[in-house]
Amino acid sequence: MKIIIGQPKLEQQLLQLEAELKQHPEADVLLFPEGYLNQNVEEASRLAAVYGTMIVSGHRRLDERPKDRSIIISKAGKTVLEKAKYTAAEVVKEQEWTISTLLCDELVLQGFRNENIGRVDMIMHSIGVGMFSEEQYTEWIEEARQMAIQNQCIVMGASHADGSYRDSEISIPIAYCIAPDGQVVLASRNDTRTRLIILDKRNPADLCHGVAGNDVNIEVIPLA
Predict the structure, then answer these.
(1) What pTM, to 2 d.p., does this model score?
(2) Rounded CA separation 86/147 (Å)
(3) What tens digit of pLDDT does each residue of 138-187 get?
(4) For residues 147 and 218, what is the distance between their CA atoms, to the nearest angstrom?
(5) CB-based contacts of 107: which residues, under 8 Å, 6+ apart?
(6) How far apart are CA 177 and CA 182, in angstroms?
(7) Are strands 68-73 and 195-201 parallel, antiparallel or unpaired?
(8) Residues 6+ away with beta carbon under 8 Å from 215
(9) Cα(187)–Cα(95) distance, rounded to whole angstroms?
């Protein structure tokens, strides 16, 4: 499986999303930050279908609370997962990979609530804006690492390239990918290049039978 991790700037349209899809037609999945889609789910669905790429991101329903939602749009342009923030995890399947999501501070406030879904292969973490301190950056990478070990799955995430938390003068854009054994294969700070993650299960039969989830090759390719 080929996954693009993007760190766009905040915008009202989906220009950066379309640019990434156009530049990387080989991608199976595009991971973008929390809230990036704004109210543009219909347009994102159209683009997913046009380019044949699954989109994992977040959007907002401004008239509801909580307003933030995880969303996964299939390669056919259909919404296959939509989950309100701070609710239990849900999953979708793509190429025999079981994928779930986290939104921003769910990572530290509630962890991964998978009581109803069982084993997952991958948790995709859409983060809003950059970290407000070096301490937060370190904390979140370690929380994600422990989550990967506990669930024996890949955990990856990305924030926007800009924006700040409340009135913080510091914003550290973050992107990361952690293997099921806790190995940090990507930990990016203040480097907003797009990344291509290539995943290859060494023995799918073993993985399907619950053998420790580190039987996967993970390659990270920085892109200009």
Answers:
(1) 0.90
(2) 16
(3) 999 999 999 999 999 999 999 999 976 677 778 899 999 999 999 999 99
(4) 17
(5) 125, 140, 143, 144, 147, 157
(6) 10
(7) unpaired
(8) 201, 202, 203, 206, 207
(9) 26
